[in-house]
Amino acid sequence: QVELVESGGGLVRTGGSLRLSCVASRSDFNVTTMGWFRQAPGKEREFVAAIHWGGGLPMYADSVKGRFTISRDNAKNTVDLEMTRLNPQDTGVYYCGRKARILEFSGASDLARYTGWGQGTQVTVSS
What we know:
Elements lengths: L3 E4 L2 E4 L4 E7 L9 E6 L6 E6 L7 E2 L7 E6 L4 E6 L8 E8 L14 E2 L5 E6 L1
Parallel strand pairs: 2-11
Antiparallel strand pairs: 1-3, 3-8, 4-5, 4-9, 5-6, 7-8, 9-10, 9-11
């Protein structure tokens, strides 16, 4: 069963913007920390951003702070990632994941604590 479905990726030029969206199917979405991770070709999947189940306490990787914004809508079971001032280093497949434990925010940047990965959405930034 597919738990998470990402969309919104594409090809943009340096300095451009994209908005990614992830739709969750589980009924416990509103008590689950959600995160965005990305994987560049030949590299390991890395943390991008996470958000508390209540919608606050957004966390970001240093490389995207000030450029990306994570948000969620618990009524719609969605978590979005607004990406601005994109650069070629942002290229990769972006994945949405949920923390395996509900009502837990600690370790929100730890890949190993996430599960239910979607198929990912490709983001390509040209120079």
